[in-house]
Amino acid sequence: MIYQVLYLVFVFLPFFSKFSYATDTQCYIVPSNSNDRRNNKTSLRIVQYNTEWLFIDYYASSDCPGNGCTWKNSTEAEIHLSYVSKIIADLKPDIINICEIEGCDELNMLRTSISDEYLPYLIKGTDTSTGQNVGMLSKIDPLINLYRSDARETYPIYGSKCGYSGTPSTTGVSKHYITEYVINKINIVLIGAHLLAFPTDSTRCAEREAQALVLQNIVLGYIKKQFEVILLGDFNDYDNEIMDSNKDIPTSQVLDILKGKDIKTNSSFYKLNSIASKIPNHDRYTEWYDKNNDCKSSANEFSMIDHILVTDNLFNKVSNAFIYHVYDEFCNTYNSDHYPVIIDIDL
């Protein structure tokens, strides 16, 4: 009898998990022995990719897969995952930061379909409303377990032009992780983050500026320890210095803050460089928003809100930077509404 029960558990548990209301697992602990599984040890390919609701396990709060997100059932969600897998396999990253992923189950599904050279890493955030997290697949094992900061900053921040007129409050970065690498004898901190959505909404703008200050303090701590920095993710904001293809102008100071600006003195605590400066202006777009609801993408509906920022030493070693515009955007596509951002660093 016991064997029959065990058989039923192992056979049907995977199916039950797709509709489970239980929380997903974490995978933030690194192996005791760090390994580097890159084919070319002199080059490092980093990819930033918002994969748009990469959920296979059912998450009740957001009803996803379901009517609460893009993928209305498990079949659609699984097809979407197969599309994402193909894109990642084509890009062959050494490290890929993934936004809008549910958890380690989905990371492991990607790994299974792409290559076991990758290991999945994710520490759950605090966005319990959507259930979205930020995770990564890496061919290089980090040296320390992924961790996150519960620090909070007050908004509106000093000098904010977001137009927020509500009661001052505080916020933190609900979706992010921090970890450390030594790659080719270079100490590198990798910080993956997904900031609050809606670039021009006054409340979200103010909250996002406070989130940027939290990340700035983390970066500054590592700069003081003489680490190289890779800060990447969906920042949901524009860069007023390295403008996107539609010359979108931010109302916030988010990118300035992340790059190191001291908002009170207009000087800099440190300097991070946007790799977008190495990409032609006409190619600087990473996300589609269907402004007129006609389900067809047009040039004026794209913006660049996904970014990779790096310290001078790494920036000077970037040999290639591009955005992977290989698929068209339209309603009912199984591809993400974002495009991957890629850099190659010669080490």
From TrEMBL:
Endonuclease/exonuclease/phosphatase domain location: 78-322
Gene Ontology MF terms in the entry: catalytic activity
Family annotation (Pfam families): Exo_endo_phos
Identification of the protein by name: Endonuclease/exonuclease/phosphatase domain-containing protein
UniProt organism field: viral metagenome
